[in-house]
Description:
By secondary structure, this protein is α/β, with parallel strands linked by helices. It has helices spanning 21-31, 44-51, 68-79, 109-130, 155-175, 193-196, 202-211, 222-232, and strands spanning 9-12, 35-40, 60-62, 85-90, 134-144, 181-187, 243-246. Helix 1 crosses helix 8, helix 3 runs parallel beside helix 4 and helix 4 runs parallel beside helix 5 (155-175). The termini are far apart. Nicotinamide-adenine-dinucleotide binds at residues 14-17, 20-22, 41-42, 63-66, 91-94, 118, 143-145, 187, 189-190, 192-195.
Amino acid sequence: MSGLLAGKRLLITGIITDASIAFSVAKLAQENGATVVLTGYGRLSLVERIAKRLPEPAPVIELDVTNAEQLAGIADKVREHVDGLDGIVHSIGFAPQSCLGGGFLDAPWEDVATAVQVSTYSYKSLATACLPLMGRGGSIVGLTFDATKAWPVYDWMGVAKAGLESASRYLALHLGKQGIRSNLVSAGPLRTMAAKSIPGFEQFETAWSERAPLGWDLVDQEPAARAVCALLSDWFPATTGEIVHVDGGYHALGA
Ligand SMILES: NC(=O)c1ccc[n+]([C@@H]2O[C@H](COP(=O)([O-])OP(=O)(O)OC[C@H]3O[C@@H](n4cnc5c(N)ncnc54)[C@H](O)[C@@H]3O)[C@@H](O)[C@H]2O)c1
């Protein structure tokens, strides 16, 4: 098998529709020679149906990243399909409605805690749960939305993403000795299910459409997926704790 990811065994989380960034990653990864195992959350039969649209069949393992029992069992479940992992994709985010859309000052701690557990802490939980399957040259990649700024409606999700960006640097620190990298792709706004749950998301769409230096296609997940695949590959062997922006250049602009 030839391709950028030839022979790589990847665990990819986060497919819920074929618009999911993770779907695009899984498709490109398979097209580039990888063997893909998926995890699905909640509506497993739906994830399995969407997975059938990939170029190759891919098994789906149930994983709620807040479920300690499922996390503890994930390595064994993955081993039923592949004998190890070269890469993990964390493409997971969730915040209760109170945390989004301008509710920053009123969101209760329980809701904020959920947002942080699912969107931030799970990056570490997933990595450590899969660590027994990984060796030198392994790569962990997650998805963020530029958390260096306060955005109008992103609120506690922005705080969770700032935590994710830090968690990725700490993972890079702690897993570096084992030769395992941790990097994030910071994507511009894309019309996925997660995006649709953010009241006022169209403000991002307008901003990017009007200002991104390279322009920005709100329904094209492939540029972000390509960057994820590149970071999973052997072409970033000395890069860890990094955030690669795939946002049409928006992050480089002043106010
Ligand atoms: N869409 C955007 O504009 C955008 C921009 C930058 C970054 N991101 C990030 O990309 C990642 C993927 O999101 P997406 O936009 O493809 O949306 P999506 O809705 O397709 O994917 C989000 C995924 O998170 C999963 N999830 C939620 N709670 C979970 C849990 N407890 N356990 C396991 N999985 C859980 C959902 O099942 C879903 O598959 C997220 O981290 C998101 O924040 C999205």
